[in-house]
Amino acid sequence: MAGERWIAETLFDELGFRMTFKVERVLYETQTEHQNLVLFEHKLFGKVLMLDGATQVTTRDEFIYHEMMTHVPILAHGGAREVLIVGGGDCGIAEEVLKHKSVARLTQVEIDASVVEFSKEHFPEFTGPVLADARFDLVIDDGMNFVRKTDRRFDVIIVDSTDPQGPGAVLFTHEFYAACKRCMGEHGIMVTQNGVPFFQPGELVSSVGHFRKLFADAACYVAAIPTYVGGHMAMGWAARDPRARSLPVETIAERYAVAGRFATKYWTPQVHAAAFALPRFIAEIVEKAKAG
Ligand code: SAM
Question: Ligand 1: which residues within 6 Å by Cβ?
Fold first, then answer.
């Protein structure tokens, strides 16, 4: 209808597939130093943020990805004090990490200062508690530079990046993963945003292939996120201690109890354990990557 605006996600154009949103209102639109950014209101998903034509976060389904990228590695580690987020612009992951009182320090390394600035105004539900927390520090830098140079050691690294295009491409390289390993503690765990295997199998094969060469344990776990369209979303898993991935549900539940049973809407100890049980086609992608 005349006057109606629909915004399409162009991430899968090569596949001849587009998810399209009917826009209630555009709240913000700009070309930053690094990427195209648009924020709009949607009837079902609330506020929707897109960077370079790829959906990043919506207020309605953000909890799924943010909880699974955070509580799985932190409770699997069991003693995480130093946590690093690479990317994470909107601070949705940081908000979940800081629910863990055991975390002494959280550093977020984001390349695009304007994403954080704009999130202060448009995602105060994330940035408000995060920027008020003394444990949080923000570094504006390319994640590759930071992990290559830092002399700090992290228990958990969460790579909440854009897709392997533009500024995000370097975060899917062997060089980046090797630099992350260098700054991980003895029982360190790294998790990565690793795309939707049904549409992006190559992304998972490539990352798990790198993990296999660098870490004692290389795998992925999954969750279904409505606006990361295409079925299961894969979260890459690279760990220095192979036992961390197969903890009994009882142990995960005990650690959650010690952490204060903070509120969640998706993550549970049972969902945590089950997320590593992969559908066969995804398990075959991971095995192919491990076979090298
Ligand atoms: N959850 C979203 C997803 O799955 O697509 C990602 C959310 S977050 C907004 C992604 C952030 O990664 C963006 O703010 C982007 O600026 C940042 N980013 C991209 N490349 C980066 C790099 N090389 N170093 C640090 N941050 C980077």
Answer: 34, 54, 56-57, 65, 86-90, 109-112, 115, 142-144, 160-162, 167-168, 170-171, 193
Mapped onto helix, strand or coil, the DSSP state of residue 135 is coil
Q: Whose CA is nearest to atom 3 of ligand 1?
A: 56
Closest-CA residue, ligand 1 atom 27, reads: 87
Condensed to tens digits (0 to 9), the pLDDT of residues 181-228 reads 999 999 999 999 999 999 999 999 999 999 999 999 999 999 999 999
Residues annotated as part of the active site: 160
Residue 196 phi, psi dihedral angles, 5° rounding: -110, 105
For 97-131, letters b (16+ CB in 10 Å) and e give: bbbbebbeebbbbbbbebbbebbeebbebbbeebe
pLDDT in the model for residue 1: 63
Distance 160 CA to ligand 1 centre (A): 6
> What's the mean pLDDT in 18-37?
93
Q: Are 131 and 101 in contact (CB under 8 A)?
A: no
pLDDT for residue 19: 96
Nearest CA to ligand 1 atom 19: 168
Model confidence pLDDT, tens digit, residues 83-142:
999 999 999 999 999 999 999 999 999 999 999 999 999 999 999 999 999 999 999 999
Q: Which of 110, 138, 204 to mutate to test ligand 1, by most ligand atoms within 8 A of the CB atom?
A: 110
CA distance 289 to 215: 14
Q: Which two tokens stand for residue 177?
A: 């993963």
Determine if the pTM surpasses 0.85.
Answer: yes
